[in-house]
Design goal:
With 368 residues, the protein is α+β, with helices and mostly antiparallel strands. Helix content is 27%, strand content 28%. It contains 8 helices and 19 strands. The strands form 4 sheets. Strands 1, 2, 3, 4, 6, 7, 8, 10, 11, 16 and 17 form an 11-stranded mixed β-sheet that branches. Strands 12-13-14-15 form a 4-stranded mixed β-sheet. The chain has a two-stranded antiparallel ribbon with strand order 5-9. It is globular, with a radius of gyration of 21 Å.
């Protein structure tokens, strides 16, 4: 089946043939006999977004980890928060970084998938997702799949229109990052008012099964001096303080996303700030990323990373057999529903002077 993208104007291109395909939900009852392998990520380069969220190929947004003060108020300076509006997760900045890397590289291997870390995390944790559906836009050009999250106009408005309570809770995480980071190593304290335009990002190459993947994602900070490798990276998270067995079970479910978000970029350490409902910091705990699966292994109703990797490999294989090259300009909409599975169909998207499908025209022209 082919349908128009719900937030795109009609396309003037020739209609494509109707196509529809689906992938069933995986079984969670037992681990795969032979788990799909994932390669340790290899960093290619880094870049920064400045206070206006403009991409710069430097480490100006790099932050260093410092111990946060106990009892810190995570609502501090909430009224001064500069929050970047929600936007579509375009690949443009990642493609700029990939293009820059290719120009300086001695040799460039064939890459099967290019996407943001957040998209790959959604794919891998999908077997245990209970409530949130998602959609991706996918293009196949010269043997490489380009994946971006699809957000309709309605979804963007919904993400921007947070309730005051939800907005404040979201701020707690950013405030924890400010308490934990500095532009240079220093004593603990407030690291500066929150501006979510500013980000420091890493671009890595990894491999799931036999498919090479290039992905990019934000890195919160480094511990000690930056070596130029991912060994020093630290991911920062917040969670409600654990008071009982129910709280512990909820936290262990959150660890699944914490684990893959960090593992995919090669981040070896996750620092979690536990807080009261009022937003005051009660404890800080460091987790080694590679050890997180052991913390939940053998517990009832818990998650298994091998199931996630097997599903991720099956998902990419599904794309490979479903998304055909065609003209190379076709855009597929891949939709996931919890406990149901995945379906994929071709959609019409408008092409302007600056874009071919989901790709920026400058990048498309460089490929062709």
């Amino acid at each position: 089946m082919k349908r128009k993208a719900e937030d795109d104007p009609p396309s003037t291109r020739e209609p494509v043939k109707q196509r529809l395909a689906s992938l069933s939900y995986p079984s969670l009852s037992s681990s795969p006999t032979k788990a799909s392998s994932i390669q340790q990520p290899n960093q290619l380069l880094t870049f920064s977004y400045n206070t206006e969220h403009i991409q710069e190929f430097n480490d100006s947004a790099l932050r260093y980890f410092v111990e946060p003060p106990r009892g810190a108020d995570l609502g501090f300076h909430y009224e001064k928060w500069i929050k970047r509006p929600e936007e579509r997760g375009r690949l443009d900045a990642l493609l700029s970084a990939w293009s820059k890397f290719k120009k300086s590289a001695v040799s460039v291997p064939d890459i099967h998938v290019i996407s943001w870390r957040g998209v790959m995390t959604k794919i891998l944790v999908a077997p245990y997702e209970e409530t949130d559906s998602w959609e991706l836009n996918v293009m196949l050009v010269h043997g490489t799949f380009y994946l971006e999250e699809h957000l309709s106009d309605a979804k963007l408005k919904e993400k921007d229109a947070m309730t005051p309570r939800h907005r404040l809770q979201s701020y707690y995480g950013y405030a924890f990052e400010s308490y934990c980071t500095s532009t240079e190593p220093r004593p603990s304290g407030w690291g500066g008012d929150v501006n979510t335009n500013v980000q420091w990002c890493s671009v890595v190459k990894t491999k799931l099964g036999d498919r090479r993947i290039v992905m990019g994602g934000e890195v919160d900070c480094v511990r000690g001096d930056y070596s130029g490798r991912t060994d020093d990276y630290v991911e920062l998270k917040t969670s409600l303080s654990i008071r009982n067995a129910s709280d512990e079970a909820k936290f262990e479910k959150k660890l699944l996303k914490f684990y893959f978000q960090s593992f995919l970029l090669g981040v070896p350490e996750i620092v979690v700030g536990f807080r009261k409902p009022s937003g005051h910091l009660t404890a800080v705990q460091s987790f080694r990323t590679v050890e997180i699966p052991r913390l939940v292994r053998g517990k009832p109703d818990t998650w298994d990373p091998s199931i996630c990797l097997e599903w991720g490999d099956a998902f990419l294989a599904f794309l490979q057999t479903t998304v055909q090259p065609g003209t190379g300009r076709e855009v597929w909409r891949v939709s996931f529903e919890p406990r149901v599975g995945v379906r994929a169909e071709v959609v019409d998207v408008a092409e302007g002077e600056d874009r071919v499908g989901i790709l920026p025209r400058w990048y498309w022209d460089g490929l062709n």
